[in-house]
Design goal:
Pfam families: zf-AN1 (PF01428). This is AN1-type domain-containing protein. Keywords: Metal-binding, Zinc, Zinc-finger. This protein has 5 helices and 6 strands; from the N terminus they run H-E-E-E-E-H-H-E-E-H-H. The chain has 220 residues and is mainly α. Among the domains are: 38 residues; 54 residues, no CATH class; 50 residues, Irregular (Zf-an1 domain), CATH 4.10.1110. The strands form 3 sheets. The protein has a two-stranded antiparallel sheet. The longest helix is centred in the N-terminal third of the chain and has 32 residues.
Amino acid sequence: MDGEKQQLLWRDAPSKSANAKQKEKERQELVEKTDFLSIGTHCCVKTCKQLDFLPYTCHRCKAVTCHDHRNDHNCANPIHDKQVPRCPVCSQYLVNAVKDKQTGKPMSVDAIVDKHIASGCKSHLLEAAEKKKAQRTPRCRAKGCKQALQFPIACRTCHQHYCAKHRFPEDHSCSTVQQQQRQQQRQRPQPRHPTACGTAAASRVRESWLARFAGFGRAS
């Protein structure tokens, strides 16, 4: 039995090696046909042009760059500088997001400072801009509550904005609900007061019933 198994193994060995050789040949042909240079993308920076298999696409200008130049590729739509400029003359802080009226593009920090100095240190003040923003911020309309509303909640009945504490109609004495209650009270039928005629008729009926009961008592 052992000899027969060995013979079977020797018979299968050439077929297995032939299959392995065929697979390896197919793999080599696939490698030769595939152009790996067409898989990646070259960096858009002229001084780089590096082939990157995982390129970075800028979400502002849609430029394709390598990993090294994703933040340094002369973006056509750069993010405006977030630093708060300060006037060297009056030492006041200025707003950093100002658009040019002619071009509509954000101004640079130097241009904002120059305009501020040219106006006599009166324009583009950060403190004045914050005050205007605070005035625009809606506040709770409930009586005695002046809380600034970052997330205003509108009442479904009076359509006014309130804070989370006074969001329900019963919490802010909703005027619309009060008007509805007054109308319902007016529409309710008022109880009728008994008139003189009515009282006389009621007394006569009462006397007749008493007389009947008195007659039944005598008959018994």
